[in-house]
Amino acid sequence: MTLINKCSFRLASGLLLSAMAVSAGASEITGYAEGAQVMRVEKTQGRVDALNDIVYSQVKSATDVRQLHMSLLVPRNNKLKPAIVYFPGGGFTSASWHKYIAMRMALANAGFVVASAEYRTVPDTFPAPVVDGKASVRYLREHAAEYGIDPKRIGVLGDSAGGYLAQMVALTGGEKRFEQGDYLTQSSAVQAAATLYGISDLRNIGEGFPEVVQNVHRSPAVTEALLVNGTAFRDFPGAAIGSDEKKALAASPMGHLSGKKPPFLIVHGSADTLVSPLQSQQLYNALKKAGDRADYVILAGAEHGDDTWYQTPVIERVVNWFKATLGDPQNAPAAPGAAKDKNANL
């Protein structure tokens, strides 16, 4: 027998013995049948429950009551978990709270309770979105025990207009004029904020862009102008965002930088043609100048909300930053006499 044949024989014999050993072990498994494939899986991932379309706030107007919704992803364990409120983008005209499931699931799988909250958009005007964003944080604190949330560790996350809102919620802690609605005994302060291609100054969203684009942002019909000044009606012709610089700055994150701020993660694409990357640059520089903690990431070649933002390295960067900033879930003792959930394994 040649050396090659001997090696082949030994390899075949080894595989045969391994197969026999596996087969012998498999035959002892309840329900086994010849030809069945047996898998042995290491448990490294827990379950996440989805709680959809929760009404977190009711906003009253002269004619009706509007319900504002959020959806929750809740890791199923008895640990005390940090929480993240995600605010979706939509150009101040929509706030679909079912978006960005890839990011939200990654955060939930990392142990965070993740809320995705809608908020009022144009034709509603400032400060309506900020009022709603802060109400969503208060809701989570009010129901922290129900969802296993550590009320001392809540962060916010948003993209585009949602990034604007995440910034505003994080930067206006303690500003009472934004505290309206329910659960007013709860704080709306947050301990971390991540903004993805967000808006930091409504006065110059198109800064650095071609003049034709900047002219669009000078129109009274552009969404940031509608958010701050409202829509044209009767004897009001509408007003451009630059018509009242002080008012526009007060409605912008850059107008709320005094005092100590929570840690920020700021991420922007270098090829963004909708929201100028200079928006994130100026926010980062202002926070650093004030001595606040801020991490700034530029995604080379990334456009506004393109597929780059759904890639694993980008999502992991955000998740890992929140883990480092807010910490991991902590063991929480079960309530005395608490019964085991009969639906736990359903």
UniProtKB/TrEMBL annotation:
Classification lineage: Bacteria, Pseudomonadati, Pseudomonadota, Gammaproteobacteria, Enterobacterales
A Pfam family that the UniProt record links to this protein: BD-FAE
Ranges for domain BD-FAE-like: 73-287
UniProt keyword Zinc present: no
Alphabetical keyword list: Hydrolase, Signal
Name of the protein in question: Alpha/beta hydrolase
GO molecular function: hydrolase activity
Organism: Pluralibacter gergoviae (Enterobacter gergoviae)
Annotated signal peptide: 1-26
